[in-house]
Amino acid sequence: MVLPAPSVLAFTGVTFLAAAFRGVTGFGYSLVAALGLGLLPSAQAGIPFLLGADLVLTALLLLDRRGVSVDWRVLRPLLAAGLLGAACGGPLAVGLDETTARLVVTVAVLGAAGVALVRRPPAWLADRRIGIAVAALVGGLISAFAVGGPLISAWLLASGAERHRLKGTLAVFFGAADILGLAGRGLLGAIEPGVWDLVLLYGVPTLLGFAAGTLLSARLSPVAWRRLASGGLAGIAATGLVQALIQALGKAFVALGHG
What we know:
Blueprint: H1 5-25, H2 29-33, H3 43-63, H4 72-94, H5 98-116, H6 128-145, H7 149-158, H8 163-187, H9 194-219, H10 222-258
């Protein structure tokens, strides 16, 4: 896979910033990095790269036992539903054409970022049945398009999950969905050889970004951390909206041209 130099530089910056955001907040790598899928020749190669990179960052996060704990009581039913969704999501996404795949990713980014901006999720969202349904949906979205995490975050917050266990609980959920998404694509033969080119090009800046974000997180006050997280999500939502509009208009013009 040969990429134009400007695209390489641009996506290097995107994945660095995405990993730094994950290092600071504990979430959001794929949400940010997916905005740069248009810089890659193929979304069907880019999505497995995002899944793999997110899985590595999740492993690094869980290895830091000082600030991470997991609420297994809450996680078990969500994990079962999420894995079921992940098993279905990957195969469905593999059959999409490039234009539709990019558009769906953009819309999913927009929706997830918009949900994440809600500071106090409504009380009705805490219903256990809704949580199971959300977990299945998010598992499918992660497996298929590597995005959707803030939806399950909103449910956990609404259900009264302990905030100090939230990061670890989400990390295990996301990691399991990443693994199943990659495994499903592998079994279907849908992991393109170009994925390894992306790993070689962007693996190092991704890890450097995560390290920079982790160091920055340790120096931020709680107020500064909230401002950075909320401001970043607002920027993601705005960028996702612009991308969704551009891609929808482009697809409409193409359809009119063939009409």
